[in-house]
Design brief:
Strand order of the largest sheet: 2-1-26-27
Distance between the termini: 72 Å
Strand content: 15-25%
CATH class of the largest domain: Alpha Beta
CATH superfamily of the largest domain: HUPs
Number of helices: 29
Shape: flat
Helix content: 25-40%
Length: 839
Amino acid sequence: MNDRYDPSIIESKWQQQWEADRLYQRDDASTAQKWYFLTMLPYPSGDLHTGHWYAMSPSDAGARYKRMNGYNVWLPIGFDAFGLPAENAAIKHGVHPHKWTLANIERMRGQLRKMGTMFDWEHEAISCLPGYYQWTEWFFRKFYDMGLAYREEAPVDFCPTCNTTLAREQVWGEDRHCERCGTPVEIRNLAQWKFRITAYADELLDRLDEIDWPERVKTMQRNWIGRSEGVEFEMTILGQEDLSFRVFTTRPDTTFGMSFAVLAPEHALVEQIATDEQEEAVRAYVDAAKRKSELDRQAEAGEKTGIFTGAYAINPVNGQPVPIWIADYVLMGYGTGAIMGVPAHDERDFAFARQYGIPTPIVIVPDEVYRAGEAAAWNEQAGWALPAAYALKEGGVMVNSGPFDGAPWPHSFDATATWLTAHAAGERKTNYRIRDWLISRQRMWGSPIPIIYCPTCGTVPVPYADLPVLLPEDAAFRPTGESPLKYHEAFRYVKCPTCGGDAERETDTMDTFLCSSWYQYAYVSPYWKAGEPLSPDDMPWDPALGQIWLPVDQYTGGIEHATMHLLYTRFFTKAMRDAGLVDFDEPMLRLFNQGMILGEDGEKMSKSRGNVVNPDEYVGKYGADVVRAFLMFIGPWEMGGPWNPRAIEGVQRFLQRVWALIVEASEPQGGIPTAGQIADLRRATHQTILKVTEDYENFKFNTMIAALMGFSNTLIEAKKTAVVGTAAWDEAISALLRMMAPAMPHISEELWARIGQPYSIHTQAWPAGDPALAREEVVEIAVQINGKVRDRLEIAADADQATIEAAALASERVQQWIGGKSVRKVIVVPGRMVNIVTG
RNA sequence: GGGGCGGUGGCGAAAUGGCAGACGCAGCAGACUUAAAAUCUGUCGGGGGAAGCCCCGUGUGGGUUCGAAUCCCACCCGCCCUACCA
């Protein structure tokens, strides 16, 4: 029998065995503590790539580790199966997206099985099947009833390549490009469906403090939500007291410093207030602003342009008139679309004032300056004062502000806010950067939006009992990328569910991020109530099972979803809670973001760079265990890093050595092992268990593998001695295999069987590390003189400080280095080192 | 412009206030072999020395400390996010 390590034989053998035994099937009856481990579901592009392996195999190891520690672990899998590539394939090859998608899924299932994960295939969910998307539609309908879904005509981002609108979160980068295809987006005015995610802005922000997520993601979400507290108040127009506009500011304490006001070009008041002399120029500016693309506006960020309207507004705090300008640096979409210009205390206003020679009175000075009575020196003639002024908030004091002079931050905010509330129709207001989630997509391959437009009844939601609105199976795809639904008469022209008259169906479909916003719930009981009529009182999953498994305990996935999927699914959960579907607030309690696996050249893998690593090739050559362990060994999981085709051989050698260690007979050793040999072996075993356990807990897979390599090297040495066959030896081998099991499930199962242990290693208990056995008896201590190592001492590990100090000073070498100098100080760190400081 | 992460041998990296470079890759030398592959053994940050050893070394410059890759300040470089949000 050829007894070399041959993964091609053992891996498929055990994969079949596990599946036949339903080893990883979810256990709903267990009394053990449940652990819902979720890794972001893949898009069925057709091939599992290295990135999937990098995300999934450590996740699987983490889940398996938890299982061996007594948890009732569930690791489900499914496919995010709606989306553009399927539609593009349909246009190109004439194959229906449904067929293309399911063929890809079939192929990827095979690849995923070869990874040797503990995925529970019996609860697989595919988002493009009617049994799944009936619930995606049901959620839309539910949110519509709750007032969380609404339709609005507004300027929106449109990707000309994908031929659809996008959510604000899906427009990336400086050039505002489409997150999927990279094309810069255009702005279009369209009637689109939106979800009122802004209704949860506060909660989405505040509950970030409650979840164990990476700070990085939390920061990104905080910035994205962008809450700012301020005051909105009214300004009237000089000579036209019936006209007014409102401005929003976070710095009411600077109102006395207002030297102009600005309206956004789209502001409704613009036409009314422009004076006759200025009217033409204002109209030209507004027209130019309209024509300017988002890109142009970006390109000239910093450079300010604007036009004077000829009108003046009254600053409510001092009754002074200030010129009203139009400028495109003020955005209609944020706040009120109008601002007060305080150039001395706002960088943007300053740039604008500079451009047009507007005065910049200083109204806030540093506390020290005020107390020293030097506030007068801080005026706009002093060039140094202005740059120092605009960042002033904390530690600033109001000056040149009438009755408020001397008010410090934050009292200055409160006092002026109160005054503006009483005297300028003001109110405290919180503004957010986050916008409502635009969910309409002008594409066919997504969940239909269950809405019917009736000339008589208006917008009518599809009745719950009529869900789901099914996608047609005979859609004709157009090379232009236009949605076939628009041209599908049977789909589009329907009777109104209310009046029975002729009506039209909404032909836009929903953003596929809706599908993934609730997939962790869909896994609980996939395709729940498929084929049955639905009602508003339904649950989208079996509530008894949901009680057991929800919410997700550990989530893993890439950082790229920080302000998309991870925000949307949090919103969904809060809306679901308010609909009475769940009784918790957050969908995923812990999150870990793995890094990105790069090509050999250290660059992102891409076909155009030609640096794509095909995992199948390496799995064929080395086996899944080697590929898994190698990906974990590369470096810290959160860091990612380049693929190195040579380094993988080191991991292969490691597994081959472990194989030989256990399978090959040892040279018979005469004699009996010494107590010291046994103690050394057990110490190595328990030290490794403690280290490896800690590393699995913290997802530090790279040092976990390194520790196992070190331990196996120790055992290979020990195999040459008489310890082989002792209880300590058996303990070591058993522990080694169980520690390898989560990361390298096949080889450990095979070797476990070969040493005669009961199937399966994956249902065994995790080895317990004993700190007493792991403790060193004798340690080497470095002796430093003035911080430089001059000697090393072997000393009992439990020696006290005095003993260590005496031993160090007794050393001849140490005395030589001290020379005649006096010892000023001796620092002893037990078990580590001594530092002798001489004078 | 703002925010975040990072910079350690030829390479991937350990070490997060206590002996820098664990573990692995590559390299070098050797064993086995007719030879090669595979495997095994040794070596492997730089400089000096016959050697015991000594000096230098974690992007750069300062600082705190008995002691700094680790903490603080300033700067340089790389990557990611964000961008006129009042």
